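ok trying again, last paste got cut off:
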Amino acid sequence: MLSEFRSRVVAHGLEEKVLDLLLARLVEQWLVGAGGKQRTDSTHVISAVRDLSQLDLAGETVRAALEALVCAAPHWVEQVIDVPSWTRRYGDRVPGWHAPASKVKRARLAVDYGQDGFALLAAVHAPPSPTWLRDLPAVQVLRCVLVQSYTRTLSGGGREVVKRREAKADGLPPGQRRLTSPYDTDARRSVKGDTLWNGCKIHISETCQATEPAASGNNGDARPGPHRPTRPNLVTNVTTTDAAVADNAMLDTVHQVLQRRGLLPGEHYLDSGYASAELIVGSLKRFGVVLVTPMLSDQTRQGRAKEGFATHDFRIDWQGREVVCPAGQTSTTWSPCLQGGVAKTVVVFSPTVCGSCPLRSKCTTSKLGRRQLTLQPQETHEALKGARARQETEEWKHDYALRAGVEGTIHQVTTVTGVRRARYHGLRKTHLDHVYSAVALNLIRLDAWWNGHPLDQTRTSHLARLNLSLVA
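nice, full thing came through this time. structure:
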């Protein structure tokens, strides 16, 4: 019944309903609200399916499609395949097999999986076969895995040749589209630092501003005032994505959800994975949110080496559409363009001027004998320059230390609610689990706060107290 209940919640798009209701009530109690400070970070979630090698993925996908077809149309299967021989290969789960030790035999087995898979698809799409067989989810997954794992060509004699797809020669689909299991089509492989996993990500946002609400009355009210302890940090949003989605691609989504709930922060503390100059400008324009986040240093050769003249050493005249270098020379061309769909401006200095410049060794080593700059739009460029300057100050570093607290929240949610490993297949059910975990975390924190037991205080165990009394 619980499984069916969760399926119905997901089917009706009510995954976030319980968190919405809780936060709405907390807004009424003055425990959360718009403005103030919030912080967001992500952590990895391991999928609820076995991690398969490429060889096992191909074989298990064929087996899963065959199992689905046997359940849906057993008589049809008897007519199109040699059941005894296929049973020997696909009767048991493929990951339970011991792969051949020989590299040649493993390659041969991989080709056999591909040939069997294409033969099964050909039988399903044959004119005499029922058309509804093509729509079985397992058959659709088989088609995708075969496309991402194999190529089919015709030899000189007209014979079909199936071989494993090679990254350099044949290309591979991008990681965000590459299936890793026939049973969870939302699971993806990703890497973050030293962590390599197969599954998804959870992005957690929480309040982190210390305010002074008033003493609670008989009605449980907590209006601002001078006599009550600071209100607890509460989770305002959780977002679940597949593992291959970059953190900065989710920032707008997080802000949109917070806007819908009326909980947009005034300042949003993030790590560098969420940051870009475009997002700094866009978040302030669209949502009125100031991003407090470290920006990468100048990525020009000079900026990375911290030697010579980086972009910030040049004086830019945006109205006059020209740039003046540290030696006082003016650029010769100003060319607006698109790079990767983003508006940029390429500025080039004259090779004649650069060639005779005494500061050339600090500026460029180009074989063309000239310096070239690639500039972002003026607003973005100035926002990036200002952010880099601010993050070098002690005041900013002290303020940014507030972001570190989100690591404790991630530890708490993974330890207490067990979100590190997904309990379900698919992003929607996994997200439902993450929402319920966020609600549970908020209730735990509210209980501790209302009863005067802040979770960050060290509690002395009974054994430790006994030891102290004996020592005394």
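cool. The CA atoms of residues 38 and 202 lie 16 Å apart. The chain has a mean pLDDT of 86.
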